[in-house]
Structure formats: C-alpha cells, structure tokens
Write a structure and sequence with these properties.
The structure holds 2 protein chains of 2 kinds. Chain A is of the alpha/beta class. Chain A has 2 domains: 119 residues, Elongation Factor Tu (Ef-tu), domain 3; 160 residues, 3-Layer(aba) Sandwich (Rossmann fold), CATH 3.40.50. Helices cover 20% and strands 35% of the residues of chain A. Chain A is built from 5 helices and 18 strands. In chain A, strands 13-12-11-10-14-15-18 form a 7-stranded mixed β-sheet, sandwiched between helices. Chain B has one domain: Aldolase class I (TIM Barrel). Chain B is 34% helix and 19% strand. Chain B has 11 helices and 16 strands. Chain B is globular, with a radius of gyration of 19 Å. The chains are: A alpha/beta, B alpha/beta. At the A-B interface, loops of A face α1, β5, β6, α10 and α11 of B. The structure holds flavin-adenine dinucleotide, flavin mononucleotide and FE2/S2 (inorganic) cluster. The site of flavin mononucleotide (FMN) has 26 residues of chain B, from β6.
Chain lengths: 292, 327
C-alpha cells in the first residue's frame, strides 16, 4: 500500500500525483529508475470494477531528487512470511484523463491509500558521460523523460525535444524540464508554444540544418524517445537512415504488469517481448512497429 | 531467496501454527494446500518466484503449450469488461520442444507439483503432446485444455462435444500414464455429458472451468476492441457461472474437481469448496496482485479457524443438497 501525498490538476485533464510507496529493497533493481513504471489500482478496495490496474511512468522519484523523500524500514510480510527491507520512496506521476480508470485515479486525495504495484519493467540506459544525447517526447510520452533528464543532464550535453497538441498540455511538463541544464526545443500542433508542427518535424528541421553546416559536434550520440507510435515509427526510420542508436519506451494494454500473462507483447527483432517485463524500454532498432 | 529464513518465520507465524489441516487431493495428486495457479496467469512460474517461494502454492499449472511454437494473436490482446477481463492471448508459447528444452530444467527445481497444460488443433496434436511429456519426472501431470476459445481451428468445438472430448482424453491417456486433468469449457451445452466422456476416457479429475467466450466493442471506433475480435471472459464476472458448473458436476459426483473462475478472495474460494471442489485455481486474481494465491490461502485458513474447522475436508461439498442430484 502506498499513500497519496498530493494530487494537483496541472493542466486540462492533466494531473500530477505524488505518492509515498513502500518498495522492497531486494532485489536491488526493484526501485525507481527512469523509464520504469508503476501499476496503480484505481478501484475501491471492496470493488472489482474497473478490474485492471493502470500503468503510469515514473515522472520523478525521491531517490533521485531532494524535493522528495526516501526512508528505510523492515517488515515481515503476512502472506509470504518473509522479512523484507523496504524503502519508502516518494514517487510522482503525471497523467492525462483518457477514460474511466484515469478519471477515477484523479479523484484520489491526499492521505488516501493507493495500491501501487512496482516500480516495474526495465529502465533507460544511464551509463553515459560527456555524450550528446537527445530526448524526444510526444504528448504524455514526455512523462518518463523528466526523470531521465535529471539523471543525464549533469554530465552530458542534453537536447530535449518535446511536442504536444497544445501549450496547455505541454507547458506544465516542459516547465519542469526547463529548470534543468538542457537545451529545450518545443513544438505544438497549433503553435501556441514553441514552433508549430510535430516534435518530429522540428527535430528533422534542426538536424537538416546541422548536416548542411557540416557541424559534426552537434551530431547526437544517442536518442531516447517516448510517445505515440507514429512519432516513434518516423523517428526509427530517421535513426536507421542516419545510423543513430537509441531507446524507445513503448505502451501496450497491460493486465498483470508483472510478466505472467503475455497481454502486452510487442514484436521485436528478437521475437515477441513483454512491454511490462523486458520493456517498456527497448533498443530503438529492435522494435517492429508494423505488428504493434 | 532466503528459504531457511522463510521456514523459520513460518514456524513462528501464528496464522500457520494453528494445526489446521489444509492438505487435499485431486484423485491421486496429493496437495499440501488447495490453492493452484491457473494456466496462463503465472507464466512458467519464474516471475512469481521472484516475489515468493513457489512452495507456498498447492501446485503450479503453467502456461498452455501446443506442438509447434505460437506467437499468439495481434494486439490488443485484452479488454476490460464490467468486473471482468477478456483475453485473446492466442496461446503464445514456445511449443513442445521449446518447453522441454527451456522450461522443464527450471521446473525440475520447482517444489510444488507442476502440471503442464496442453492444447491442440487436432487429436494427433494432443497425442504428440502427451507422448512428448510422457515419463517426464519434472511434471506431476497434464491438464488437457479442450476449451481454449482462442484458436479458430476448433479449440472450442472439442470442449463442447462429449465425443470429441472422449477422443482427446483417450488419445492423451494412450501415451501418458500419469495424472490427467481435463479442463472443461463453460460453453459446453451438456457439461455433465462432457464430464462423463472425460472420465470414461481416462481423466482422473476435472478443472471447472475455463474462460467463457465474449467480446467488447469500442463505440467511438465502432469496431471490436480485441485484435482477435473474440476473447475469453475471466474474473469476477465469470464467478457465478463457474460456481454453478462446479456445484452441478460435484452433485453428479463424476470426478474430483479443481474449481475456479473469478476467485479473487479467500471467501470466494470457500464458495467453490462448499460447492464440492477439492481444490481451487486462481487466475485473474494473480494478474491484479501477484500475491493473490497466498492471500487466498490465508483467507481459507482464516475461515476454517473462524468456523472451528480443523480440517479443510470438513467443508468440501457442504453446500450440496440431495434435492439437486438430478439436475
Ligand atoms: C508503461 C506505460 C506507461 C504509461 N505512462 C503514462 C504516463 O506517465 N502518463 C499518462 O498519462 N499515461 C501513461 N500511460 C498510458 C495510460 O496507462 C493510459 O492512458 C491509461 O491506462 C488509460 O486508462 P483509462 O481507464 O483512463 O482509459 P480507457 O481507455 O478506458 O482504458 C481501457 C483499458 O485500456 C488500457 N489503455 C488505454 N489506453 C492505454 C495506453 N495508452 N497504454 C496502455 N494501456 C491503455 C487501460 O489501461 C484499460 O485497461 C502509460 C502506459 C504504459 C503501458
Ligand atoms: C491471460 C490469460 C491467459 C490464459 N491462458 C490459458 C491457457 O494457456 N490455457 C488454459 O487452459 N487456460 C488459460 N486461461 C484460463 C485460466 O486458466 C482460467 O481457467 C480462467 O481465466 C478462469 O479463471 P479466473 O477467473 O480465475 O481467471 C487464461 C486466462 C487468462 C486470463
Ligand atoms: S501485462 Fe501481463 S505480461 Fe505484460
């Protein structure tokens, strides 16, 4: 069980939820990391509807950011009879109301108990230093990038490209990222913030310029992206054409979120992979979009 | 994981120290406790083993396998319905050879009995699966899935037709001398006839029941939600249907029953035991909470304690009445 610390509407149907979650410390890779997600129960404890949890990317976590807290405790689980060391980590999520589950989630208030499974899944690679890195986020695909940017910004040269339908959706998240030491490039469909167009349009524009100038230093070493499939698909073609490596974070409908049911598989060069378990982060060139 | 530590703690745990006997059996298959994982909801046990000792489970029924590997159905593979889950995974699995090569060595080290779940398009598929798994010490038996509604080529047809079920069970029995469970579909018109056919053809117990065929439509896109159009309904929405079938089959006393369908809590499990199931299978609940089987086991013990029962067997079939026998 986790406890809601705060829930704030930060844009139209856009919420920031902060919870305090108990995370087992064993195995060591159980904790919060950029790209990992939590599977949140949105129904009331005595109700079975809506049945499934909802997956949300970790937007920010205390283990990485001094504004949020981390504490350690020891407890014996009643069900498994195991004594486990827990870390209480404050986790933040940013989500948009899309349907019934997210609408119910938006009704949780401070001090409410919330059942949080996770953090789950694989995170982004973080072992970079002195590299030219580009982050690309479209719509709510921006959510996992703030946490990632915090991890990478200090010792790398980070350019962040973010796009959304409107300023109202983009601004709350881009404002957080703008506080970091990154070069921020924004796009909205209607031009209400940043340049008009999609995030892929502005990225391509910038890099077409770069290659004209022959400015090799601007050439990225690595690209991280999260967003709608058409964005990732275009980006993949662009990256393949320019021989650029990187990682994508994918979304799929999930039942268990813990690797047991095969609801969430995507096609990759190495066969079907579970977005909740091997993913949600995959090497960009491995993902096969046609079948997704 | 720290097995020694967990055993020490278990001995100290007052909930488990109260000498309530929760052992049970399905025919010749002895079980330390009545909670089994349902096929397709626990993979091959690896992911759950990261969270707890599998020895906490009565038995593990692993993901369904077919002769050839299958990559499964297209996305979306699931849809949420009122208090229910529709799935059309499409039996994604490594195939018989892949299962033997990649999963059996791991399953050999799993403590509770492991049952392999087998599925096929034809009688000869079932024969080949039974032959391939015959004599394998790593598994304690076979669960024969004659009811998977996901395969166009006739998964459903087998399970609804007593004659086809008899032929499948006979084929499996002719190659496999170990424990055989036949898993029935709630879509069968005459489930008593199907169950009789399974018994006469060598099944030792019945799993009641698999998912019920269903579908969901997105009214904005005006199209079916599932990539495969139809799927199988599980979870609380299925529970009353499954409970009725367990009751009806227990009343007819055909074979021992592994009951399941929408068991989410210990109290739900108790209903199935009262209806005559000797053990229960937990599927969808594990998808919502990986610890669900253990919580359900604790819930069963709590109920027995509260009602001063020292032995699980005291409650099995308690809700059955003579009057229902003929139905
Ligand atoms: C790994 C991962 C991380 C995510 N991170 C975020 C995030 O940080 N912020 C955010 O706003 N959204 C995120 N999403 C999407 C979010 O999970 C969906 O918007 C949400 O599940 C919709 O639920 P609903 O009940 O409101 O919508 P409904 O459409 O009513 O949901 C019906 C069913 O479809 C599923 N579903 C619908 N849309 C999606 C989707 N895009 N991805 C996966 N399942 C979906 C639901 O979970 C539910 O089972 C993430 C998805 C995944 C898989
Ligand atoms: C995601 C999923 C996958 C399943 N895969 C199989 C399978 O491979 N073989 C099988 O016999 N049953 C399969 N089932 C059916 C379950 O084993 C179980 O019989 C059914 O879901 C009803 O129980 P429940 O309501 O507890 O889930 C699957 C069910 C689900 C939800
Ligand atoms: S959601 Fe169950 S395997 Fe990924």
């Amino acid at each position: 069980m986790a406890e809601v610390i705060s829930q704030t509407e930060i844009g139209p149907d856009l919420y920031k939820l902060t919870i305090s979650a108990r995370i087992p410390q064993e195995p060591a890779d159980r904790g919060a990391a950029p790209g990992r997600f939590c599977h949140l129960r949105v129904r009331q404890p005595e109700s079975w509807d809506p049945l499934l949890r909802r997956p949300l990317s970790i937007y920010n976590a205390g283990g990485y950011n001094s504004e949020l807290k981390v504490e350690t405790s020891h407890e014996t689980s009643h069900e498994t009879s195991h004594e486990t060391a827990y870390e209480t980590d404050q986790l933040e999520f940013v989500y948009q109301i899309r349907g019934r589950g997210t609408r119910l989630l938006s009704q949780f208030q401070a001090e409410d108990q919330i059942d949080c499974l996770g953090p789950l899944g694989s995170g982004f690679s973080l072992d970079f230093s002195g590299s030219n890195i580009i982050l690309v986020g479209g719509g709510l695909g921006i959510a996992p990038l703030y946490f990632l940017a915090q991890k990478l910004a200090d010792i790398n040269n980070l350019q962040v490209y973010l796009g959304a339908s409107s300023a109202a959706l983009l601004q709350p998240m881009s404002a957080d990222i703008a506080k970091l030491d990154v070069k921020l490039n924004l796009a909205t469909d209607d031009g209400s913030l940043g340049r008009a167009g999609t995030v892929f349009d502005i990225l391509r524009e910038d890099f077409a310029e770069t290659s004209c100038e022959g400015n090799k230093s601007k050439q990225p070493d690595y690209i991280f992206a999260c967003g709608p499939v058409p964005l990732l698909h275009s980006l993949q073609k662009y990256m393949t054409a320019n021989n650029l490596p990187g990682e994508f974070s994918l979304e799929k409908r999930m039942a268990c979120g813990s690797g047991v049911c095969l609801s969430c598989v995507c096609q990759t060069a190495s066969g079907n992979q579970r977005v909740c378990y091997e993913g949600p982060v995959f090497p960009a060139r491995e993902v096969i979009f046609n079948g997704c | 994981m720290a097995a020694d530590n967990s055993q020490r703690l278990m001995a100290d745990n007052p909930r488990l120290k109260n000498n309530i006997d929760i052992t049970t059996a399905l025919g010749d298959l002895q079980l330390k406790n009545p909670v089994l994982t349902a096929s397709g909801t626990c993979g091959f046990g690896r992911e759950l083993a990261e969270r707890y000792e599998l020895s906490e489970l009565g038995a593990l029924i692993v993901k369904g396998i077919t002769v050839e590997p299958r990559s499964g159905n297209s996305s979306p593979r699931i849809a949420e319905t009122p208090a229910g889950l529709l799935n059309s995974i499409g039996l994604e699995n490594p195939g018989l050879e892949g299962f033997i090569r990649e999963e059996l060595p791991w399953l050999a080290g799993v403590k509770p009995p492991v049952l392999a779940n087998i599925s096929g398009h034809s009688i000869s598929d079932f024969s080949r699966l039974a032959e391939g798994l015959a004599g394998r010490q790593e598994i304690a038996g076979l669960e024969v899935n004659v009811s998977c509604p996901n395969i166009g080529a006739g998964g459903l047809a087998f399970g609804t037709d007593p004659e086809m079920v008899a032929r499948v069970a006979e084929a499996v029995r002719s190659y496999y001398s170990g424990f055989i469970l036949v898993k029935l579909t709630p879509a069968a018109g005459d489930i008593l006839a199907v169950a009789q056919a399974a018994r006469e053809s060598g099944a030792e117990a019945l799993t009641v029941c698999n998912t019920m065929p269903g579908m969901e439509i997105d009214i904005e896109s005006r199209a079916p939600v599932l990539g495969n159009t139809f799927g199988g309904l599980s979870g609380p929405a299925l529970q009353p249907i499954a409970l009725k079938l367990v009751y009806q089959l227990a009343q007819a006393d055909i074979l021992p029953i592994l009951g399941g369908g929408g068991i989410m809590t210990g109290r739900d499990a108790i209903k199935f035991l009262l209806a005559g199931a000797r053990a229960v299978s937990v599927g969808t609940a594990t998808l919502l909470d990986p610890l669900a089987p253990l919580k359900i086991k604790t819930g069963i013990v709590d109920y027995l304690k509260k009602h001063n029962c020292g032995n699980l067997q005291e409650i099995i079939g308690q809700a059955l009445t003579e009057a229902e026998t003929s139905r």
